[in-house]
C-alpha cells in the first residue's frame, strides 16, 4: 500500500509556480524579498495550488481506506451532483473559450495553429483526468 504522503499520480505544477517552488520550497516570501502585486499574487496562487494538492492527497487516502475496509466508497448524492454541475460549467466555459480562439475570420493557417494548441492543451491535461479510468489503476 502507498503512503498518504506519496501521490500515485503526481501532478505537474504550472511552470510559474514550479519555478517559485524550486527557488523557495516553503512558498513563504523571504525576508527582504521585493514584493509587488504580481509577486504577492504569484505566492497566493502557488499556495492555493499547494492546498488543492494536499486536499487531493487526503481524498485519495480516504478512498483507499474505504476500499480496503468496505470494498466500496459511499458517495454523498449532493456532492456527486455538485461535481457534475461544476464539470458542466467548466465544459461550457471551455467551449466558449474555444469559440473565441477559433475565429472564422482568421486565415486558415492561424486557425490550424489555434486548433493544434487547443488539442495540445487538452492532451497535456488528460494525464490527470480520471474519465479514462479502466478499473485497474489505483487512485
Explain what the structure shows:
With 139 residues, the chain is mostly helical. The protein folds into two domains: 74 residues, no CATH class; 55 residues. The chain contains four helices and no strands. Helix 1 crosses helix 2. The longest helix has 33 residues. The chain is flat, with a radius of gyration of 20 Å. The N terminus and C terminus are likely disordered.
Secondary structure elements and their pairing?
Blueprint: H1 15-23, H2 37-69, H3 77-101, H4 108-125
State the gist of this model.
The chain is 61% helix and 0% strand. It has 139 residues and is mostly helical.
The structural domain count equals: 2
How far is the N terminus from the C terminus? 11 Å
Count of beta strands: 0
Low-confidence stretches: 1-5, 121-139
Average pLDDT value?
78
Structural class: mainly alpha
**Helix-residue proportion:** 55-70%
| Beta-strand share of residues | under 5%
Number of helices: 4
Give the overall shape, derived from the CA principal axes. flat
* Oligomer classification: single chain
Order of helices and strands: HHHH
Amino acid at each position: 500500500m502507498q503512503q498518504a504522503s506519496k501521490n500515485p499520480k503526481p501532478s505537474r505544477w504550472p511552470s510559474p509556480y514550479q519555478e517559485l517552488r524550486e527557488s523557495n520550497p516553503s512558498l513563504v516570501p523571504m525576508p527582504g524579498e521585493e514584493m509587488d502585486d504580481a509577486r504577492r499574487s504569484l505566492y497566493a496562487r502557488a499556495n492555493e495550488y499547494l492546498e488543492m494538492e494536499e486536499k487531493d492527497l487526503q481524498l485519495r487516502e480516504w478512498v483507499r481506506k474505504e476500499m480496503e475496509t468496505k470494498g466500496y466508497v459511499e458517495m454523498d448524492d449532493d456532492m456527486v451532483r455538485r461535481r457534475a454541475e461544476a464539470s458542466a460549467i467548466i465544459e461550457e466555459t471551455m467551449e466558449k473559450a474555444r469559440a473565441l480562439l477559433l475565429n472564422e475570420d482568421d486565415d486558415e493557417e492561424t486557425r490550424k495553429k489555434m486548433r493544434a494548441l487547443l488539442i495540445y492543451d487538452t492532451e497535456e491535461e488528460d494525464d490527470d483526468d480520471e474519465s479514462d479510468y479502466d478499473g485497474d489503476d489505483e487512485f
